[in-house]
Design brief:
single chain, alpha+beta, Aminopeptidase, 7-stranded mixed sheet, 3-stranded antiparallel sheet, globular, Leu/Phe-tRNA_Trfase_C, cytoplasm
Length: about 220
Amino acid sequence: MPIDPPPTPWVFPDPRAVDDDLVGIGADLEPGTVLGAYRAGLFPMPFDDRPRAPMGWWSPERRGVLEPGGLKVSRSLHRSCRRFEIRVDTAFEEVIEACADPARPHGWISNGIRSAYLRLHELGWVHSVEAWRDGRLAGGLYGVAVGGLFAGESMFHRETDASKVALVGLVDLLDDEHVAERLVDVQWATPHLTSLGVVEVEREDYLDRLGRVLACPLPTAFS
């Protein structure tokens, strides 16, 4: 079971009172602070790409989510799923290192973010879902699991479709008797994610739903 860290001393702004995706700047990346942010409908991301950029706390006005049963699996992706083995938390550090690769375009995972999520992984709150083939890590994703919420942070692939297969694996892990109360949060709905079934919801709707989602039990794979 996840280990509860000390609570954060910071008070986050109410996202409902802010007319922007960026809700606040500052605070810290202690485990209690980061978990408190997710429970309040926020997530951390550096404010800009400067090496010592202040931390931004975001709650998109239009949130990208994958609803239960909403994943679109094409025939080609279905075939790809048969080529890979899904594992959970067997190579977390390698997954986050691959996601943080500075050679990737639009990289945002700073050393501070990486360290914070490694600590949360050690406490049992952050998990990797990995696609393996022939004994090699081919792709994967990582995110925060709190109750029925899985907040996806980043994904990568070294082989075609491997990150998509990891997403299919994640959805399979969430498919239990509580699946109707679960939600995959992807922050913003990119065209790529939209092609996989991600939709946008208004921030107000997301926040209204969040309490019920957080009250849901953790999936067995993450508990």
